[in-house]
Design brief:
2-methylcitrate dehydratase PrpD; 20 helices; disordered N terminus; MmgE/PrpD family protein; MmgE_PrpD_C; lyase activity; MmgE/PrpD_sf_1; MmgE/PrpD_sf
Length: 494
């Protein structure tokens, strides 16, 4: 009781008013929320301009897994399978190994799992380390609303939150759903503006979504969850300059830790500034340039599930999204026409001029550079017949055979569009036209508007599990354990 009284006193002191004593109103609690006595939220003024934090928190705290249609629950299983596989593979990357070394020295042991490892850490350490591994390869699913990477930040947070409270799988999955939906809402309405001003839309959307998801998994009440979002809003700004570098994964690891920390602080009575998201001086004004109190239509939450419409894109190859249509169309042309790679004289790729700007043009020196190099991706096809996580190592992309293959790749901007469609990049920004020239003068060409895994070419469950198995094998996990983990994830309740 004394702890609750301290929380209430702290909140009253910070708000300059009074807060009801225990039993006479709402207060933050790790045991309330959807399964507690105060889950209706009808007396809270959600959705007023400048109170987006309260609106999304109130919605999330009332969300139950059974509120989702069965198709949405299945998408959550797919997300968990894919992100877990990415974490298993990502844990072996140099940046994740560095993070592991630092985290294991700084953070104490605890009850929270580190994905794919036998160690257990306290919640904040586990979240940071898992989020670094999940994001290390940039191979995680993309929320198509705003095209943001959010699941690889949100899942580590809701995992740790669920373990802290010894919650049920339903709490974990509801937290993941809440986090993804809120991330999609933010990205849908502010993602482009954030990007134009040099901020990472993925970080802002994922950071706020992870906080909401963590609060739901912790079963905070709506008032505490709202304050968690306001606290987290103070630290979600990440520069886009981090993209394409190893620092991206470590920064997102810190972002995930901040998201869980915000919920834990709010649970203990700490409040964040009113309007921290959409009020004067809040995230949307300061980072996205919105006018204060712009009303973000939060009532879309639960009306159109972003999990399904437009859904998520699941990557087939561990490369940056703008590269994927070009790599897949090249592979299709080589396979369909039975072209031996030794006969290929040159491959020319025609891309959206906006995509060409972000590509690595020189031979890659790091894993991140390789993932943003179209020459590397196509060079792997010519050298190995495929491209997967096993190729993202210095000894591979420094090999003379791959370097020679990369020299046969040419990338050109296509300002007039592709084929007979001058506006193709408006609807398909990553579309690619491919021309394969062979020794002797023969030539084939093709066009790919969208990579496999996008809404027009979804990755089916079998292909997604094959990706998981490949990633888990890369981590060194034995086959029996791989199959057990996959089956457990597919069998999560719904």
């Amino acid at each position: 009781m004394a702890l609750r009284e301290d929380k209430i006193k702290l909140r009253a002191e910070e708000s300059g008013g009074s807060v009801s004593p225990p039993g006479e109103g709402k207060f933050p609690s790790l045991a309330s929320g959807p399964d507690g006595p105060d889950d209706d939220g009808d007396d809270l003024p959600f959705g007023t301009p400048g109170d987006l934090a309260g609106a999304v928190a109130g919605w999330a705290c009332r969300l139950r897994l059974e509120d989702l249609p069965p198709e949405g629950v299945h998408v959550l299983r797919r997300v968990m399978l894919d992100v877990t596989g990415c974490a298993l593979a990502g844990a072996g990357t140099p940046v994740a190994r560095v993070a592991h070394s630092l985290v294991s020295r700084v953070y104490t042991s605890g009850r929270c799992h580190v994905i794919g490892q036998s160690i257990h850490l306290n919640p904040l350490g586990a979240v940071r380390l898992n989020a670094v591994a999940c994001n290390a390869l940039e191979f995680d699913p993309v929320v198509l609303d705003g095209s943001v990477h959010a699941a690889a930040v949100i899942l580590p947070v809701v995992m740790a939150a669920t373990e802290m409270t010894q919650g049920r799988p339903q709490d974990l999955m509801a937290g993941l759903a809440a986090g993804l939906e809120v991330a999609a809402l933010i990205a849908r309405h502010a993602g482009s503006a954030l990007g134009r001003r040099g901020w990472s839309a993925s970080a802002v959307a994922a950071g706020l979504g992870a906080t909401v998801g963590g609060a739901r998994a912790l079963r905070l009440d709506a008032d505490a969850a709202a304050h968690a979002v306001r606290v987290a809003a103070l630290r979600v700004g990440v520069l886009r300059l981090a993209e394409g570098t190893a620092a991206r994964a470590t920064t997102l690891g810190a972002l995930a830790e901040d998201a869980l920390h915000a919920s834990l602080l709010a649970a203990e009575g700490v409040i964040g500034p009113e309007g921290g998201v959409d009020g004067p001086g809040g995230v949307l004004e300061t980072l996205a340039g919105y006018l204060p109190k712009t009303v973000v239509p939060w009532r879309e939450l639960g009306q159109r599930w972003a999990l399904m419409d437009p859904g998520l894109s699941f990557k087939l190859h561990p490369l940056a999204a703008p590269l994927l249509p070009a790599v897949e169309e090249t592979a299709r042309l080589l396979s369909t026409h039975g072209i031996p790679t030794r006969r290929v004289r040159r491959i020319t790729v025609h891309l959206n001029p906006a995509s060409v700007v972000g590509l690595v043009r020189t031979p890659p020196a790091t894993m991140s550079q390789a993932q943003h190099s179209l020459a590397f991706g196509i060079g792997c096809l010519l050298t190995f017949g495929r491209v997967n996580v096993s190729h993202l190592r210095a000894q591979v992309f420094e090999g003379p055979g791959l370097i020679e293959a990369m020299e046969r790749v040419r990338v050109l901007p296509a300002p007039a569009g592709l084929g007979d469609d001058p506006l193709i990049f408006d609807s398909h920004p990553h579309a690619a036209g491919i021309v394969v020239e062979m020794e002797g003068g023969d030539m084939v060409q093709g066009l790919c508007k969208e990579a496999v895994g996008g809404p027009g070419h979804p990755l089916d469950d079998d292909a997604l599990e094959a990706k998981f198995v490949s990633n888990a094998r890369f981590s060194g996990m034995d086959e029996a354990r791989i199959r057990v983990i996959a089956r457990r994830l597919w069998d999560l309740p719904g």
